[in-house]
Structure formats: structure tokens, C-alpha cells
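User: Okay, second chain of the day. Same drill as before: sequence in, C-alpha cells out.
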Amino acid sequence: MIIDAHGHLGDILYPNGGKLIYKRGVVMEKLWDPQGTNEAQLNRSFGMGKLIYEITNYWATKGQRARNFTATLENYQRSLDENRIDYAVCLPIAPYVTFDDLAEAKKQEPRIIPFTSVDFTGKQDAAAKLSQDVANGAMGLKLHPIIQNVSLTDDRTLLALQAFEKLKKPVLIHTGPSGYYLGREKSKNTPAFGKVKYVEEVVRNFPGINFIIGHSGLFWVNEVCRRMAKLPNVWAETSFQSPEIVRKLVDIFGPDKVVYASDWPFGSRAPHIRIVKVACRGDQELEDKIFYRNAKELLGI
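Assistant: Same drill. C-alpha cells below.
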């Protein structure tokens, strides 16, 4: 069994992103995609990842945007089938893609494990909506401070977390500074909101919530390990990390606190599966824990 703990459907960068879910025949724009190069070498950057990202930032962002626009249900299902994924956590980012969008898609694809998201536009009572979404099947909460452009220290975030803590579901937070817009649109996001120190502060302030650290911090994974290794309410996920880093996460957080994730379509599932297998070095029990047992227990499924 494999449970992918991090993925997306729809356009998470622009309004009415749910409409993309049902488009058919969508293929990725042809361009240089640095993530494809990274995946070919199993995300190994030999300590140069942050520098390479800075140097190739324009093309890395352009490539990730091109991947974003391929997040249709048709492509999602094909990826699940080709990689034999049994279930996949699907993460909305309100107001662009919502829990309601994913709940509707789940009617066609039962392998979807939908999370909910906070709409920071003020059009909804956040606490009431989160409670309603969990009652309707949301299995957790996604926070993306960069794309949503709302700091984790913002009162609106803290109030949402206070409400969600009562619902006893996990929270996945994007961790690590990154950008998603180009040119004049850069002001739509604030990469610094993804800094590890803000995530750590939230994790420490809400000990009643189990947190999944998105991408284990990207290029700031060592900082995640240093700051959060001893926190009992932290799970690490494997997207964009190399086999060597996945092994380090197991050593530091423990074999019960690491979960497989691809961040599809931003990451491809096949190389991320291969990364976990290489990291596990033939240890079938460890593979089973990372691929599904840990996520199954964390999600309560």
C-alpha cells in the first residue's frame, strides 16, 4: 500500500482554480523544468540545492507554475494508477481551491483524502467552516502562508488554529521560503512567511495539534531537524528530499514520524517513491511505515 501525504488538484495560484480539475487533455507546457532535472538525480543536490535554486529561480518558478496548470483530475488519476497509489492526501489552498472543490472531485475519485483550508478573505466564519468541513469529511488542514500571503503569526491564522485544535485532525504547513509568481505578480506572495522559525513557533504554541512539516523544510531541512527534532507533535514528509536526507529524517525524528509525499504535480510520484526505497535500503518494515502505516495512523484511517 502507498499513501501519498501531499498533493494538489486544481489551480492553487489563481481565483476559481477548481475549474481546472475537470479539464481534459491538459499537458505540461514545454520548457526547461529544473525539477525534472532534480528528480532524475533523486533530488540530490550535494549541498548545493539552495544555491542552485537561487541561480535558476526564474526557470524553477516558471517550471513549477507550468506543473500547477496540469493539476486536472484526469492527470491526477493517471498518476495514481501508474504509480499504484492507494490513497492520496489532496490539499486545497483557499480561496483558489477549496475543500468543497475536493469533496466534489472525491465523488469521482475515492482515493482522494481531502483536507480543508482557511479562507483569509473574510467572506466566511473560519471556525464554523472548518468544523463543517471536518464534519463533511475533511481529514486535516493545509496552511500555505506564502501563497495565501498570511503570516503564521497573524491573528487570523492563530484563531483558525485555535478552532482547529478542537477537531483533533493534523495540520500540514508549507515550510521553506519559495516563490510562485513572476514579474509584477511577485507581490502576491511573501516567501519569507515560509521560514522555519515561524513554523516552529506555531508547532510549539499548539501542542494539541499534530503537524506535518511540508517538504521537511525544502533546502532548510537541517534547520527543521535542529529546531523540531524533539517536538512530539511533528511529522516529517519526504517531498523534494534526497534518499540521504530521508534517511536523516528517519534517524532524527524516528521511523514512526516520517511519511511519503510527492507534492504532485509539483513533484512527480515515481522518483519520490524511488527515493524512499533507496533510503530504506531494503528494510521492508521501514518502507511500509513510510509509505502507508505512519500516514494511516496519523490520519486516523
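The chain has twelve helices and nine strands.

User: Thanks, on to the next one.
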